[in-house]
Amino acid sequence: MALGKDYVTQECSIARALEVVGERWTLLVVRDAIYGVRRYNDFLVHLGIPRAVLSARLRTLTEEGILEKRRYQESPPRDEYVVTERGAALWPVLRALGHWGREHVDAHRLRLFLHADCGGEVEPYGKCAACGTFVPVADVVMVPGPELDSAPADPVSRALLRPKRLLEPLETEPPQPAY
Amino acid sequence: MALGKDYVTQECSIARALEVVGERWTLLVVRDAIYGVRRYNDFLVHLGIPRAVLSARLRTLTEEGILEKRRYQESPPRDEYVVTERGAALWPVLRALGHWGREHVDAHRLRLFLHADCGGEVEPYGKCAACGTFVPVADVVMVPGPELDSAPADPVSRALLRPKRLLEPLETEPPQPAY
DNA sequence: CACCATGGGTTCGTTGATTGAACCCATGTC
DNA sequence: GACATGGGTTCAATCAACGAACCCATGGTG
Are residues B122 and B146 in the same domain? Predict the structure, then answer.
C-alpha cells in the first residue's frame, strides 16, 4: 500500500495506520505473530499465503518496527520474527475486527480470550468481565471455542488448540517419526 | 478480496471480517460514511479514489449491508449511501486503528471525539473520560484538532471542520456564484 | 433552442500487485 | 551420497488499481 499510489493525501490517523497495515495479508500476519507464530514456515502453512507475498510482508513489517527479525541459532542460520511492542499495540484493532466479524459476519465462537490472572472472559473492548480491569495483551490466554475444528490439518492450527498466552512463542509438535 | 483468492480457509473471525472490509479503500469509505459523507461525488473528492474503484466499493458495501443506497430525490434521480447499523458497528475498529496510527505512526492530533451529552473526550476504547459511560457512535461529536489543516482545498474537508455528530449527514457549502 | 454544468456513473488501456509453481542454497540426518 | 528442512528468490500468468475519457439524464442560462 505504501508502494505506488497511497493514502498520503489523507490527513487522518486512520489512513496513516492503513498505509502501514492496510495491505492484503498484513493484519493476518500480525494476528499470527500475536498468537505466537514466529517462523517463516509456520506463517506459510497457517496462512496459506504465497511465499513471495509472505517474504514481502515480513520485510515491510520488520522495516516498520512491528516485527523484529532475530537469529535464534547459527548453523544452520535460523531467524524468527517476533512481534514488538508496536506490533502488540495492534491487538485492540484485531480484537475489534474479530468482534465485528463474529457479530456481523459469522456468529461462531471460534476462540475465547481469558484474563490470565482471574480466568474471566475478556470483553470486546479489552476489559475483564470478571474483575473489570483492562487486560494487557500479554495477560490474555487464548483457548479454543466450542465451534473450532478440533482436528485441523496443519500443525500450527493444532498447536493453537492448546490454551496459550498471547505473545508467547508457539510450540509446534516435533515431526512424528514415520514407523 | 472476496473475489478470487480469499481468506476462506481461515477459521477465524478476524479473517472473516477482513474478507468483507479488508480490501483497499474499503475502510476509508466506511470511515467517511460514518463521518456523514453520503454522496458519490463527496466520497470521490474527499478520498481521491478512482471512480471505478469507488463504484465497486459502494456496490459491495451495499451488498454486504454496510451501506444502504437510497433515492433522495427523483428528477434528476439522485441516490445517497447511508451507513447502516452494521456499518456503524465498525466504528470501534476505526477508532482503534486511528488510535494506533496516532500513537505509533504519526503523533498529530488531527480530530477530537467528544461525548455529546457531557462534552468529555472519548477515550481510545470508547468510554467517556468525563462521565465514564460507553459512548455509542451516534453520541460522538467530532471536532477538528489543533493540528488539522484549517483551510483544506476540497469542500468535504472544509465541511468536516465544523463540529458535527457522527452518522449525521454532512452539509457541504452550496457552490458559490462566481461574480 | 443551444449550450454548458452537475451528479453519477461505465469503459478502457496501462501499470502494478498477487498467485502458484519452480528453483536455489546451506546445513543436518540416514 | 541421497534426501529432508528452513528460508528464501525468480518468473510467467492473472487480477486489481489507476486515471483519463466518455456517457447520459436533467436543470439552468443566454
Answer: yes
Of chain A, the percentage scoring pLDDT greater than 70 comes to 91
**Segment 100-159 of chain B within 8 Å of chain A by CB:** 100-106, 108, 110-111, 124-126, 134, 148-149, 152, 157
Nearest beta carbon to residue A126 from set B125, B134, B152: B125
Contact assignment for A149 to B101 by CB distance below 8 Å: no
Which candidate, A174, A86, A83, A91, places its Cα nearest to that of A136? Answer: A91
Q: Which of residues 42-61 of A touch strand C (CB under 7 A)?
A: 48-53, 56
- A122 and A74: one domain? no
Q: A34: helix, coil or strand?
A: helix
A82 and A113 part of one domain: no
Domain residue limits at A136: 109-165
Q: Is residue A5 part of a domain?
A: no
The reply to whether omega before A152 is within 30° of 0 (cis) is no
Q: How many domains does chain B have?
A: 2
B67, β-bridge pairs? B83
3-state secondary structure of B85: helix
Give the C-alpha separation, A26 to B124, whole Å: 22
In the block, cell 480466568 appears at A119
Distance of C1' in D25 from CA in B160, Å: 30
Is the pLDDT confidence value at A74 over 90?
no
Q: What is the mean pLDDT of residues A78-92?
A: 97
* Distance CA A177 to C1' C27 in A: 20
Say if residue B80 is in the same domain as residue B130: no
A42 inside domain = yes
In a domain, A118, yes or no: yes
Last residue of a domain, one of B45, B70, B86: B86
Q: Helix, strand or coil for residue B72? A: strand
Q: What is the CATH classification number for the domain harbouring B62?
A: 1.10.10.10
Which residues of B, range 36-95, sit inside 8 Å of A by Cβ? 47-48, 86, 89-90, 92-95
Residue B92 is nearest to which of A14, A22, A96, comparing CB atoms? A96
Position A95 in a domain:
no
pLDDT digits (tens, 9 = 90+) for B82-138: 999 999 999 999 999 999 999 999 989 999 999 999 999 999 989 999 999 999 999
* Chain A residues with CB-CB distance to B157 below 8 A: 11
